[in-house]
Request: fold
Amino acid sequence: MAEDSIAVVDLDRCQPDRCNYECANFCPPNRTGEECIVTRDERHEDDDLYEGGPDQISISEELCLGESCGICVEKCPFDAIEIINLPQELDDEPVHRYGENAFALYGLPAPEEGQVTGILGPNGIGKTTAIHILAGEMRPNLGEFNQEPDWDTILDEYRGTGLQNYLEDLRDDDVTVARKPQYVDQIPDQFDGKTRELLERTDERGALDDLVERFGIEAVLDQDIDSISGGELQRVAMTATLAREADFYFLDEITPYLDIGQRVTAARIIRELAEEEDRSMLVVEHDLAILDLLADNIHLAYGSPGAFGIITPPKSVRNGINEYLSGYLENENMRIRQDAIEFEEHAPRTVTSGQVVAEYPELTKSYGDGEFSLEAEAGQIHEGEVLGVVGPNGIGKSTFAQLLAGRLDPDTGEVDAELDISYKPQYIEIDQHMRVDAFLRSITDDFGSSYWKTEIAQPLQLERVMEQNLTDLSGGERQRVAIAACLSKDADLYLLDEPSAHLDVEQRVLATDAIRRYTEIHDATALVIDHDIYMIDLLADRLLVFDGEPAQHGHASAPKGMREGMNEFLANLDVTFRRDERTSRPRVNKPGSQLDRQQKKDGEYYYT
Ligand code: ADP
Ligand code: ADP
Ligand code: SF4
Reply:
């Protein structure tokens, strides 16, 4: 073989009965009589343990010529094959390989007592796999998927590394682990009953009351689990995990559906458990401002999603995030992205040159007997602009959007424009048994046009999910399909509620670009509600700031410039940001630090 490369066959796609083995027919080593691509049955003819299966292909990584050949990749009509050269620096065997020509994971994160360790990287790169291994739910096979190695072999591999003790304890069943799953929306499928019942059985540390209070979930204790919202489920799941008595806590994404105040609270609670109780915390997180606040060290994960992933040794959280944003990992000598992700240090000048799409007077709206009331200042919205909408959950953001769209009538004031609105809700419920392509085709006549592909399908990375069923999609895939569906409709106003949920950093940046471009080209306006401050920074031209008392009354500002808007929003939260010296990215100040006090005094919460 020319270079170390990995061959990955997607068995959900490989359908030899429909292609007549085009890959094998054209593979150069095959043509000289070698058995580079053969069927799985042929490969394992002499293997007693092999159970046989459909006649899908097996690619020999020893014989394969590598990425520069790639003929099979081109020939396969179902996009089932990936041939990728591994980075030259990588001389280790994988920690785990799911099977022949399947995903391979290299490297493991090393949780440490008294520390919060973060993992940052794209979806599909093996973060959950690593967590399964460290949680003792899966024994790593060191790439030997035919003969599961015993623990001694595994330990030999890790002797002298930071993971040796951990793995020994794991072998001896001496590690207690508490884990919060990624998709909290699935909890009601697994648990029936009231929130209180679920939580009570987790209270091993006697910390439940305190956690319930700090996460602000008292009000849902007596509700059925299947009746509470995603944001509440997220906090219930975190409470259930952190209430346990464990040496290691694994939290797979903590921010989806939480507002910024709730995110910051969650980060502080997790930090305290590490610092004050000397526990090890391992957290996967894509909200970089929160990860920055939360973690002491982070491991970056890179590679090729779905094919292989490499987890780096730990880096300080500051350097790690800087390197990740810059797109270049220094120690690894690895470029992971062409362009750096950059933030504006000074507030951009507000340009509102587009035509006015909607002009509205002061509006009020209340529900029921005034259980919740909203008042919105008068304002104007322009063509081609993206308005960031910020404020806590339950403060009236969706209500306001419905008023603008004419779907709800205000109690006082009048919205004259009849705007067509296209809406992506926060919680995406797709239970239709329908393929993604059929679903999107039913929404737009542009489906499949080169324009639609460039503006929507590519940035939202939809190509590989088109043939899947909506119900089989992961949270991140579902989110991207929902954003695509929202943008594909003809409308004046695109309202996207939390598009960042379950997207990785790369996908957030791509989705941001897609939303910005789309509004610009269509002379439309986008209202984007999101709680990821980096995403809002990259996305918004102006801000609508909501404050008040959630579930009681809300107040919406008129659209404001970024500087004024950020100041107002962050003053409500009592959080200031400084700038990283090297990259100018915003970083949360320690409450009460000199900078924090100075910035509050100056009224400059975000931009300098
Ligand atoms: P992440 O958490 O970074 O999104 P995962 O660890 O969940 O990534 O998955 C990494 C890759 O491993 C995915 O491409 C997935 O298809 C593959 N994978 C996960 N579980 C299995 C499995 N049981 N068998 C084969 N492949 C799997
Ligand atoms: P946000 O979008 O900021 O999370 P919403 O506008 O969805 O806030 O809701 C604001 C408040 O109004 C919440 O307390 C919510 O429960 C309540 N609410 C929303 N819609 C209705 C309705 N149709 N009837 C009664 N109360 C509602
Ligand atoms: Fe054969 Fe490898 Fe070339 Fe594919 S990339 S055709 S497996 S040599």
